[in-house]
Amino acid sequence: MTARKKRRIKLPKVKPSKNRNEVPGQVTYTGKKEAAVTKLEIIDYSKDHYKRLDSENIEDAFAFESSEHVTWINVNGLNNTKEIERLGDYYNLHPLIQEDIVTTNQRPKMDEYEDYLFIVFKMLHYTDDGDFINEHVSMVVGHNYVTTFQEADGDVFDGLRDRIENSKGRVRQKGADYLMFAILDAIVDNYFSVIETLSAKIEFIEDQLFQDKVEEDITHDIQTLKKEILRIRRAVVPLREIINRIEKIDTALIENRTKNYIRDLYDNIIQVSESVDIYREMIWGLMDMYMTTISNKMNEVMKVLTIMASIFIPLTFMAGIYGMNFEHMPELHLRYGYYYLWAAMILVFFGLLWYFKRKKWL
Amino acid sequence: MTARKKRRIKLPKVKPSKNRNEVPGQVTYTGKKEAAVTKLEIIDYSKDHYKRLDSENIEDAFAFESSEHVTWINVNGLNNTKEIERLGDYYNLHPLIQEDIVTTNQRPKMDEYEDYLFIVFKMLHYTDDGDFINEHVSMVVGHNYVTTFQEADGDVFDGLRDRIENSKGRVRQKGADYLMFAILDAIVDNYFSVIETLSAKIEFIEDQLFQDKVEEDITHDIQTLKKEILRIRRAVVPLREIINRIEKIDTALIENRTKNYIRDLYDNIIQVSESVDIYREMIWGLMDMYMTTISNKMNEVMKVLTIMASIFIPLTFMAGIYGMNFEHMPELHLRYGYYYLWAAMILVFFGLLWYFKRKKWL
Amino acid sequence: MTARKKRRIKLPKVKPSKNRNEVPGQVTYTGKKEAAVTKLEIIDYSKDHYKRLDSENIEDAFAFESSEHVTWINVNGLNNTKEIERLGDYYNLHPLIQEDIVTTNQRPKMDEYEDYLFIVFKMLHYTDDGDFINEHVSMVVGHNYVTTFQEADGDVFDGLRDRIENSKGRVRQKGADYLMFAILDAIVDNYFSVIETLSAKIEFIEDQLFQDKVEEDITHDIQTLKKEILRIRRAVVPLREIINRIEKIDTALIENRTKNYIRDLYDNIIQVSESVDIYREMIWGLMDMYMTTISNKMNEVMKVLTIMASIFIPLTFMAGIYGMNFEHMPELHLRYGYYYLWAAMILVFFGLLWYFKRKKWL
Amino acid sequence: MTARKKRRIKLPKVKPSKNRNEVPGQVTYTGKKEAAVTKLEIIDYSKDHYKRLDSENIEDAFAFESSEHVTWINVNGLNNTKEIERLGDYYNLHPLIQEDIVTTNQRPKMDEYEDYLFIVFKMLHYTDDGDFINEHVSMVVGHNYVTTFQEADGDVFDGLRDRIENSKGRVRQKGADYLMFAILDAIVDNYFSVIETLSAKIEFIEDQLFQDKVEEDITHDIQTLKKEILRIRRAVVPLREIINRIEKIDTALIENRTKNYIRDLYDNIIQVSESVDIYREMIWGLMDMYMTTISNKMNEVMKVLTIMASIFIPLTFMAGIYGMNFEHMPELHLRYGYYYLWAAMILVFFGLLWYFKRKKWL
Amino acid sequence: MTARKKRRIKLPKVKPSKNRNEVPGQVTYTGKKEAAVTKLEIIDYSKDHYKRLDSENIEDAFAFESSEHVTWINVNGLNNTKEIERLGDYYNLHPLIQEDIVTTNQRPKMDEYEDYLFIVFKMLHYTDDGDFINEHVSMVVGHNYVTTFQEADGDVFDGLRDRIENSKGRVRQKGADYLMFAILDAIVDNYFSVIETLSAKIEFIEDQLFQDKVEEDITHDIQTLKKEILRIRRAVVPLREIINRIEKIDTALIENRTKNYIRDLYDNIIQVSESVDIYREMIWGLMDMYMTTISNKMNEVMKVLTIMASIFIPLTFMAGIYGMNFEHMPELHLRYGYYYLWAAMILVFFGLLWYFKRKKWL
Question: Is ipTM strictly over 0.90?
Fold first, then answer.
């Protein structure tokens, strides 16, 4: 029993991460990306109007409030929680929402309030180093504004910005609800491309396995893939529910003609989530494939050993016989005894070779 | 830690596929089959009337619009998106539908509009090379017309065309809703035959495994089967939902007497989807069977090695004894010492043979 | 890549089975059992009346139509589709029903029509050769008649026939709905006995595995069991749904007092389907057990090899030493050198034996 | 093909068990426990009254019918079906209920009738030999009586009998519905203790595996555990549904104040069924653990072989060199050649030892 | 058969644990933590008022009953069931609730009564020794009081106590329903940190496996992790249902403005339960990883053996040839025969080395 106790894994003490055990509703940033300043990017547009303002001063956002146009306020950098709180208080956001905006491990969700929708989702991407990044994004959708909060610079909305600026597509002719749709659409497209990368990784490992090129333990890579697909799933599945709910909610914030687009978006995210399930199964299958590869290799090793040993052990025995020092061993005195033995050994050698050939080990 | 980093798979950069990151509602062809021209095949029929027109000119379709007959317009080739857009605009199709028609990786779905139903599904087949092909088909069902859009020439509707032309079966006596049913019925029959091919592959591999004919790693084949069954499932499951919904929707487009046929079709697609689940389990089972086969083979290899080594190593030892050069070894001087030893060795040889026989290793 | 292409399984061309790609509603027999003639067995009974007529003439059935008694018309042999069509037209059966009667791979289902219920189910049995047979049975239940259609002679209804003839049980006092119940009850009892046979097979294999009597690859047997349980499941699960629906439908065809029996039948089929799930798990477990058996055997083989090699290789080395021809090897000249060496070798021999004994390998 | 046919398992003919293929509603005992006589145990009580009567005469039960007290009639022994039928007819029980009472493999279920509830459940226990016993119990709950039917003597209700007799707890102050609750409560407690035994078995096997004490194939034990947990599950899951339904049904038979107790009971059986699921997973995990143990052992065996062979094969080769009989081998004539060789061999010996040490194989 | 009987595991007799087979509603403590005395900790607060009283006298709690403030009575120690009963009777708690308070293996649940809610949940933590502890906590929530019952001293509510005392956060401005929320919130945060510890353990084992540092059988550790995750799941899943129900129930006990907080809490516990599912999958994956590691090691062992044997067995054979004593062996008399042989042997040696190198075994 003591022996077993000793075996128990000695863990280094785990100290609780900073985002827990705090006061509910308190606005504490829990992410890792510490932006020097909180940057604001304000895009104000209507059919005939376009204005863009980049600022680091939170007050600049307030000027656009009464605008007749659609205003998209994008906030990059969540670690200056004071600023977030000021913005939140100005827009009259519930304290729990302010908390959710900066709680980066918050699960995707949607809360409906009288004057706005609050949506949390995740933006995924692979860095150039192949690391998988999961960025927390929140969005407040009001009557004529959309506010998005991101952890840091860099996102998947450049195509959308371009369409707004250059009046491409329908976005300039439509309201804040269409902008919300366009943002979510960019996110879902982002998921498609992340899954494509993952799929390429899976195929790469499969090819390695099929071509017997795997020299080292790839369990680690498979385990990493497992974790990535689980994290993607964790981002996709709740967003699917959210989009489904957006399609169905009865709110003045979303016009009926936008519902068609939402429905289409819902079809897309279902497709994403089906892909996630399929790739998940594929990844789990990789482990089995790897096990088979290992077993096949061991089989090959064993065959080499068996062939070498089975051929040379009997031959060595034959040589051993005539190495004995008995006084009376008539074969030793035969004129061609040595050659006869060689003949016998060659016979045995080829006989065994033929045997292994027939067994298809060679 | 650095050692582990190095092991991480270096992927070639994956560039996003062309069908994403675009403007929602924009009509961009995403498939691979680039048809030189968009071909139209127009079949106009009623109980007493049959006319067929093949054309490459989209305007030819418009002439049939006000026809009292049922008109089936089949469009082959989706890469000339301009033509698709013209046809779509003429029929007043929603921009998102036009997008779905050319988005070849769109999941099967049905959208109900006031004047028509829009249905997306997949046509599956194996090429002669054994490749699995998944063709995107869209269908618009109106009051007296059905329009189908396919990626390229070649489909599973020849039997149906023949029945219309030769007035076989009921199709000529019925309306556009029955034509829709007949098209979906041909698709479901197509699924049955694809599954039959898959089932034949599975049985083939099983037979190979049972007869120990598998010489090389068949993991790749099993993995390919897994992917195929998953792709079939992806085509079948949403279509099942669609057919279920068609059976239940309340629309003037579908007559009540056609509902019986739809219900029958629903029974069939349920049967398809059950088969898919069963074959899926079978395919997953193949991997286990293969592992067992490998282990059995290794067992056989090990037995040969063990038998050879266990018999000849002791004999070699015995020969080694009398190869020693001690001055005082009385056995060496016995008159029949050599023969006695042979007798002993033969005894050991057969004793071990008997032992392995009893263990059923021989 | 070309190497991998070559490995792809070359399948013999699969030609589509005859029952697909046909006109919907067309009556084409798809089974294998080609009965020479279509046999009719007509049982007409009431509390005080019993008449049985065996015939090969389909018209004989029509004479019973207006009978006040309950009439059970059992049709054996479905390949003379003309006869089936005549009977079907006489009873005014929908073309799709006529198709389902002869489509032997039709999934179990129930269709409610105004004047009758149409039920499709499967009769299962093992032949004496151990083959698993799945016979397609259809049943039309009208106000005072039940018509059953079977592929061939031989069924599980003999007990029921006997009870009708000899007025045992309640069947003679009740109507066509009770007859329907009695037929389904016989089918469910049939499922119980098929599962019993399957369970006996599973236990047999388990016993073989436990007693280490398995000499050859039993993967094939396990795979066969898997297929059988999946086919049983495919018959049972839809019938469970059908019986559940029969219990709940509101139709004049089924009297209320019969509902109690249907409910009891439903309990039974639930029990069947639970058993199916349990045996399924058991069968999947057999594969694991077999793998363990293989591994245990390999362990045993390895132990024999290791013991033999580990004992005799060092001894051979010792003998090899004194087989050397160095001029100056003092041991060779010792008076009892040879005996000393034997002593040492015996010591090594028993030492190693003791070591393996302690390791519990012997 | 013929070779494969031969391999098919030849089963001894399975003859159908006696409880099937009979007339529905016919009362035939299907269990194994053949009690010599059917014993009645009648407990009649109210707040101030207690009477107990043990009898073998079924008529004795009828005397208590009109009693104002609560009457618990416990019947032990079901093989005298005549007696059961008489009792059943007296209480006006539906023929199907009478059948269910003696059909020992009937699944747990509840039927609601106007005047009584009929509940079937299972009593589980391990015999002293470790065999798992599954006893069929039926219960009829009327306005002021509860009748229970058991296969044989011996049950889990002694605590309850004692409480009634000695007026402990609430049971004497309450009606037949509370008695029903108390009986079910005893059954659920019985499930808890069966699961505890099972859990002890699992832990025992785990400990054996961890301490490497497993000398023989424990697959059989694990398979037995699997079967036991599946049988427990089969008893627990339907009873859970039954208790849930009892909580919800609207019947005069069950007073509202008893519902609180039923709800509590429902919490308990949910806990039982969760435990069942957890232990099931644990048992399935045992097989994996066992496989790992086997593989670890084989690893150890292989290491011993590899070490012995790798050390002594090179040494034997070295000795073999100097056992050759070439005329010109200068080393043989060196004064200390023999000792030099020993030095070299010792060097090789320790070098390889060090190598295996470094590899952590020693 | 007898041989198999013998193999059956002989279990030590399991005696039923003390908490079962008792009278329903009887208050018997079933836990292990026997506190010397039952300690009361009473915190009475409102916006402007704060009073804390620690006592071991149960009557002290009654003084606060009519208080206008919110009163939190925390009871540590459940083994003095008399005290619990007195408190329960005073508050008019149903006997079944009193039983649940001291039944430490009671599953988490919520019962709604007219004047209070009764909630059972689990507090989890790892001891410093790494043991996993599961503490039973009950909570009664009334109009202006919350009573909590814990098995022993030490809990996760210190942060909350601090906030109440120092008037941090909102708790002092709100009622008993907010206190209930704050307690549940602390519990859910507790689950987050337990899962974090578990996740650290999983990563630790993974790292050990990847770095091939695993020297001994870690099955035990994995099995322990499995049990822990299952126990966490058992605490989390029912609490999730409870919180969902709290969000939805219509009771005067919970104010509408508190519902927002409950909804947020519900999001958090969903996140916990998703993590549980993910880590569960991870833990199950560890076993596969371990199996792969073992197989890889065996491969390495086999390679060493194969290389050593394959190289030296042929060489030994060559030496054996020239150790024979034939009279006529011309090579023996060659001037450089010995050197030629060495050359041949070196050739063979490097040839085989090259072969194994090419096979990438070296």
Answer: no
